[in-house]
What does this fold into?
Amino acid sequence: MGQFTKRYAPFLFGIAGLMSCLVDGNDAPSTDPPPPNREPLAGCAAACHGNDVSNAPPKSLSGVTETTAVGVGAHATHLSKASTWHAPILCADCHVVPSEVNSPGHMDGDGKAEVKFSIRAASTWNGTTCASECHGSTAVGGSAPTPTWTKVDGTQVTCGSCHGKPPPAPHPDDQDCAKCHPTMENGNTSFRDPLSHVNGVVDVDNSVGAGCSSCHGSATSSAPPKDLAGNTANTSPRVGAHAKHQGPSDWHREIACSSCHLVPITDAELRHRDGDNIAEVKFDTLNPAGVYTRTTLTCSNNYCHSNGRGNTGTVVWNVPGAKECTSCHPTSGTGMSGRHRLHIQGEDMTCNECHGAVINAQQKIIDAKLHINGVHEIKMANGTFDATARTCANTGCHGTERW
Ligand code: HEC
Ligand code: HEC
Ligand code: HEC
Ligand code: HEC
Ligand code: HEC
Ligand code: HEC
Ligand code: HEC
It folds into this structure.
């Protein structure tokens, strides 16, 4: 949190900076904090560089707006206000920001801006490319770790440009980033917490790590039991079904803390212990409509329990008991999509005949990571299913039919 505050200080104190920029610089108190870097500042921007949304080029000092000019380059892509995938980037990350027009070093006569990295001090700029800590390295599997500043076509910020997906060994060879990195959403295509990505800290769910289980949890997990009051029984509301959800399973994908909570990386994180000793439950994208109601101890509108079409997705957190296949799936096929009922009841077909990647002829789950993962896997002995057109073709059972 400290680093966050430090990064934003220039922004928070920016209005004062703006005033100093607009008045005669010589009269401004020398202790003024630097001006903000991303607001449309009349005094700083319009006159020499920038535009009405940012002080940064475009336009450059020579009035150029093309990103192929070194004075313009990738300013706009770095400084776009809200990013869905990375922490904000400030002028101060790459320049010493002058507190006023006449600050020493600002207009030093060479007609060029000095690039000086602050937060990522080990980064370098050679006039064409950056070797920066933000853009990863080949050691972590990045394919474009030294991006060209004037090449603004998106090819240097694809997933894999800065680090592998995932990075090479010794990093675990596991595609399910969200399981270990609470920054990522379930499905691993979007960021649950963009502020924590490319912020200089590798966020790893260390919920089994030292220190996490001193207040809640056990030697094997920081999830209750024990809860904050020392309860261990799974009928206790604050312990509930934690243990049932934990760890590898032979029938469903692994469920991370981040499926149900925003996971703190350190105990000291502000959103972690907010003073009421009540855990915040926030489901990930697999359960966009999911709600936990503390008064009734129920999870409802839950995808996991189940848009397998067995019930309304409501389940009680602290009522233990095995969750049979039938608690989430109607074996008759009734209530499920398309022609389930027709095939199961009318043709005596079994689940594996269409879902062969997930389940075998003995009706045992054979690939747990594909089950309750948000994707409907179709694999038949013959033929294909087109999920968009919702049709089956070349099945050997019948011609092309709509599901
Ligand atoms: C990701 C790093 C980065 C960030 C963030 C950044 N700049 Fe720059 N800036 C550069 C680079 C690289 C150059 C080109 C330097 C050179 O010509 O050698 C540059 C050049 C400039 C120039 C000189 C333009 C010219 O015509 O030569 C100005 C003015 C400038 N930046 C202002 C800003 C302001 C204001 C912000 C914040 C709103 C900002 N920059 C944010 C990297 C950055
Ligand atoms: C089984 C757990 C696990 C999974 C799954 C996982 N990671 Fe990691 N990741 C780690 C650990 C542990 C580290 C090391 C943390 C450290 O060095 O402090 C790490 C570090 C990283 C780093 C930083 C590397 C460095 O040295 O700078 C990146 C980037 C990363 N992971 C990306 C990914 C991506 C992308 C995925 C999914 C495609 C992924 N990880 C999946 C556990 C995992
Ligand atoms: C501009 C470079 C860049 C791009 C593009 C990029 N990353 Fe990263 N990523 C980093 C850096 C640097 C780290 C090291 C930790 C940090 O600073 O947050 C990182 C860390 C991670 C981690 C470890 C957890 C964390 O946030 O620390 C994951 C997971 C991850 N990235 C996933 C992705 C995925 C998925 C994509 C594509 C959608 C992606 N990254 C694209 C630079 C990048
Ligand atoms: C399936 C959803 C789910 C998962 C996964 C999950 N939790 Fe929870 N967690 C809950 C619910 C529900 C509560 C109860 C909130 C309440 O009513 O107080 C809770 C409560 C807690 C509490 C507060 C206990 C107390 O004494 O009040 C802690 C601490 C906690 N969880 C940590 C974790 C950790 C750490 C993990 C991962 C190792 C985890 N949880 C995984 C749903 C989940
Ligand atoms: C000093 C005691 C203490 C330590 C150490 C601690 N926690 Fe917690 N944790 C709490 C309390 C208290 C809550 C209840 C949340 C509240 O008050 O809002 C909680 C809640 C949680 C929750 C539920 C989500 C939430 O924020 O409400 C998770 C997940 C969690 N902790 C994970 C961790 C992890 C991971 C670590 C180690 C990095 C850790 N805790 C270390 C006291 C602690
Ligand atoms: C004749 C082929 C066929 C059989 C037999 C079949 N399914 Fe399906 N299943 C499908 C198709 C096609 C979909 C739709 C995929 C999509 O939406 O992309 C589907 C989707 C599902 C879904 C997602 C929810 C829904 O209603 O679409 C679940 C859960 C499911 N099947 C479970 C089962 C189970 C359990 C069985 C055995 C009792 C079974 N299926 C038997 C073809 C079949
Ligand atoms: C907690 C609820 C739940 C339980 C219990 C459950 N399932 Fe599922 N199942 C789902 C959901 C949700 C889906 C939707 C597809 C997905 O996300 O994988 C699904 C999908 C399926 C599919 C379709 C293939 C797929 O994953 O796309 C089959 C077959 C299946 N389940 C069989 C079973 C069998 C056999 C059992 C008992 C061993 C079982 N299920 C227990 C929730 C459950």
In short: Confidence is low (pLDDT under 50) at residues 1-42. The chain has four domains: 1-119, 132-172, 174-329, 336-403. Residues 140, 163, 165-167, 171-172, 174-177, 179-181, 188, 202, 204 surround heme C (ligand 2) (CB under 6 Å). The CA atoms of residues 305 and 378 lie 20 Å apart.
